[in-house]
Amino acid sequence: MEQFIQLLHYQFFMNAVYASILTSISCGIIGTYIVSKRIVFISGGITHASFGGIGMGYFFGFSPILGATIFSILSALGIEFMSKKTDVREDSAIAILWSFGMAVGVIFIFLTPGYSANLMSYLFGNILTVSGLNLLLLFILSVVIIIVFLVLYKTILFVSFDEQYARAIRLPVETINYLLITLIALTIVLNIRVAGIILVISLLTIPQTIANIFSKNFKTIIFLSIAIGFVGSMMGLILSYFLNIPSGASIIFFFVLLFIIAKIIKIIQTSIIYKTAVNR
Amino acid sequence: MTPIIELKSVTAGYEGEIILKNTNLIINENDFIGVIGPNGGGKTTLVRVIIGLLKPFSGELIYHQKTYGNGDGKLIGYLPQINKTDNKFPISVVNVVLSGLADRNNIFRRFKKAEIEKARQILEKMGIGHLSKKNIGELSGGQLQRVFLARAIISEPKLLILDEPNTFVDNKFESDLYKTLKDLNDKMAILMVSHDIGTITYYVKTIACVNRELHYHPSNNISQEQLAAYNCPIQIIAHGVIPHTILKDHNH
Ligand SMILES: Nc1ncnc2c1ncn2[C@@H]1O[C@H](COP(=O)(O)OP(=O)(O)OP(=O)(O)O)[C@@H](O)[C@H]1O
Ligand SMILES: [Mg+2]
């Protein structure tokens, strides 16, 4: 415990704590949208496509995260456009962009002479080295997401529940979809430093899946996911520090642990309800 | 007779395949049009054109009353034939009904107490008031169909379009539904697609036969010969309706 309090005096550690908070807010809200709308596969596609930008960043010497941002937004808009406006099937469009981004990334990383510093942290995450700039951007993104979901809550809910009906009553379905897919892309990119490309998708899905065990209400799932996300990433962060392992892996380890605990609680809860119902 | 929507020689279909040829139709206030026709005849296509979900290849679609989302009362309330919604989606029954009030001119809107109360009342009238707080995934097919009906009428639209509203629901609710529609018809025009010709001719005022072409029949009394002349072979699929029920005179 003393060791832990000591840690709180270090700037890098406090940055990591702030990152956990912002990660759980941004991923909590956006992830609830992703899971409810069943677009986990789209999000996986966007995540992996962004690797192309990271590779190009290394090769041409600009910020890999900037490259990832451009790649992920373009692939997000590309998937939305290809699946709605052309006759390419959505999952095929995703698969194409997913592997294309990865291929571009691999090619440029192999072409880059010498050692690609930090490559591991892009792949598996390193919450302890999140930069101040990344934190600031994550903060701005979280504020934007909160505002968007506050003012557009019902419209987002209606459009994602029944797109056909939303079109029939002339809600701006296209605008909402493009806005949200862009927010998804940005959330993914800015959380890559926390969990890594390979694992970031779980920040957007496991807390929601746990929350969904206890609630079927969109708003409640958001709040629960934020709380679960924060607990999981704080514990993961501490484990990552003491064992010197990538934070993405340690966070997911705790998420799965929380998931199992939640399942057990739920099973006990249902059996109690069942027993009282039978005994009445 | 005040027109609400008018189709002028509309031709529509999918990817080059023409489904509706040269269709003319005027829907006036307080109309109650029954749309009949064989499977694949183009009834749903017609509905999608009227609602604006499907852009016609040619022809004109005129909305005479431009009240689409002007706050009080929408132009069209709509019950789709098949709902492609995901029943695991985390949304409550009352919120689904409220989505019928969503307004494209005010996407930032919140719902007032009175509107939520209204949604509850409509659900009550549909016999599922006790389910209003439930998640849609916890409902049966027929209950869900009632929720979508409630969503279609909550905005008190000028025109209510129902694409086979009697699928999934039990016959008690079906006859209640027709009575409700009759009441609603005082306030709004109704266009209802149905295969149950025997029953609907009793409630509707006029009939539109749709089989690649639209033939408008300005009465609710239609004979087998007339159906044949309209190229509308529906007695073949009309389940259990014996021809004399169709011929029976329902003047009221
Ligand atoms: N999205 C689509 N793409 C291509 N063709 C379609 C599409 N939807 C319908 N069709 C075709 O259009 C024709 C008319 O379909 P529609 O759904 O309008 O029929 P319907 O009269 O409503 O039939 P039912 O009584 O079975 O509901 C059918 O032949 C169908 O194959
Ligand atoms: Mg149909």
Molecular structure report:
- Chain A has 280 residues and is mainly α.
- Chain A has a single domain (2-279), classed as ABC transporter involved in vitamin B12 uptake, BtuC (Orthogonal Bundle).
- Chain A has helices at 2-7, 11-36, 40-49, 51-60, 64-85, 90-111, 119-124, 132-161, 163-168, 173-190, 192-195, 200-203, 206-214, 218-243, 247-279.
- Chain A is globular.
- Chain A starts with a helix and ends with a helix.
- The model of chain A has no long low-confidence stretch (mean pLDDT 92).
- Chain B has 252 residues and is an alpha/beta fold.
- Chain B contains eight helices and nine strands.
- Chain B has helices at 43-51, 93-98, 113-125, 141-153, 171-184, 197-203, 224-229, 243-247, and strands at residues 3-14, 17-28, 32-36, 58-63, 76-79, 159-163, 189-193, 206-210, 214-217.
- In chain B, the strands form two sheets. In chain B, strands 5-6-7-3-8-9 form a six-stranded mixed sheet, with helices on both faces.
- In chain B, a hairpin with a 3-residue loop joins strand 8 (206-210) and strand 9.
- The longest helix of chain B has 14 residues, at 171-184.
- Chains A and B meet through helix 8 and helix 9 of A and helix 2 of B.
Characteristic terms for this protein:
heterodimer, A: 280 residues, mainly alpha, ABC transporter involved in vitamin B12 uptake, BtuC, 15 helices, 83% helix, B: 252 residues, alpha/beta, Rossmann fold, six-stranded mixed sheet, three-stranded antiparallel sheet, 8 helices, 29% helix, 23% strand, binds adenosine-5'-triphosphate, binds magnesium ion
Short description:
Chain A is an all-alpha fold and 280 residues long.
The number of helical segments of chain B is: 8
Low-confidence stretches of chain A: none
Structural class of chain B: alpha/beta
CATH topology of chain A: ABC transporter involved in vitamin B12 uptake, BtuC
User: Low-confidence parts of chain B lasting 5 or more residues at pLDDT below 50?
Assistant: 68-72, 236-252
Q: What integer value in Å does the Rg of chain B equal?
A: 18 Å
The number of E-state strands of chain A comes to 0
Helix content of chain A: over 70%
Structural class of chain A: mainly alpha
What spatial form of chain A do the alpha-carbon principal axes imply?
A: globular
Instruction: Supply the CATH superfamily name of chain A.
Output: ABC transporter involved in vitamin B12 uptake, BtuC
